[in-house]
Amino acid sequence: QVQLVESGGGLVQAGGSLRLSCTASGRIFSSASMAWFRQAPGKERESVATINWIGSRTYYADSVKGRFTISRDNAKNTVYLQMNSLNAEDTAVYYCAARFVSETYVLLRPRDVSSWGQGTQVTVSS
Fold first, then answer.
1. What is the pLDDT, as a whole number, of residue 101?
2. H-run or E-run covering 115
3. Between the CA of residue 104 and those of 21, 101, 114, what are the distances in Å?
4. Which of 57, 58, 83, 118 is the 20 to 30 Å CA partner of 65?
């Protein structure tokens, strides 16, 4: 099992930027695929971005392509989500997630996840 702790959420104006971080415990991080999901009130949890174990493959939901960037630093056991050009539709609780499989060729779905973080709130004011 791996524990995931997110940080970096908050309140931002439309058009602004935020960077989320997720730090993992355990050596398994460097061999896990990582992902960010989000869940808005009254909606299902949705995939945002996925990155493979080495950072050579990344995948994004259509709604965030060109605005969000997922990256990782295995030396720091940390995965990031840089969010630019934020709008009100990006308001949600953002969750970090791990899948204990090194390689991935698709955007991970909630049912693919092995371990979840506790979530961090992102609110975009218009």
1. 87
2. strand 115-116
3. 21, 7, 14
4. 118
